[in-house]
Amino acid sequence: NSTLLVDHFHVTKLINDHLNHTRKRIMRKYAKNKKSLEYRLLKHRYKILLKSKNKVDHETFKYDKILGYHSTESKLLETLLSFDNELRQAYNAKEEYLIFDQVSKKEVNKSDKRKELDDVIKRFRHTQVEESISVAETLDNWKEEILNSFTWINDRRVSNGPCEGKNNYVKKILSNANGMSNFQRARNRILYSQNKYETYTMNEHTDRIKRIGNPRGSYKKNTK
Predict the structure, then answer these.
(1) Is the pTM of this model over 0.85?
(2) By CB neighbour count within 10 A (0-12 exposed, 13-18 middle, 19+ buried), where does 132 fall?
(3) Domain boundaries in the chain?
């Protein structure tokens, strides 16, 4: 009786990846002149396209080497979007999905997320951008799982982020140890580090954990 859902982070990543594919396709149109402003900005300033519009700076002026003058992030973004209408359409569709996705628990209870998602899917389809149309098909195929992701437990939206964080922590432990030669010791170390609120006895255990293998032979020290 489990409820299937998709992590909202991965849906956002999918949309950003397809937007990036659109950016690369448009950039190749200017590849004949790689010193052109269009090519250089699309190649080296693409991260601002993947940034949420709410986090784009509208006030701070910084010198941009490619533009050759001081500019804000918002003006740089507008310059990028002015190069091609397909890029603008794909970017606006991405922003519309972020507005749909980034909501609080109270806002979800007061809104019809199914209707909003249908509107977002239509927006992606109406862009006439091949990558965005592919996104629309994916969102439509996984509609129920996306809607199920708007579930809060203990005032926190359901996500596999904590689980992925634990997996990453285990990988770092094994990486710092240059591998795993003794499973029992590695297991104890992982359990000890991940359960910081547990208490442990300081007495020595009766069973020693030793690596299984042939004993080391005798050797002569070099006295010279």
Answers:
(1) no
(2) buried
(3) 8-157, 161-194
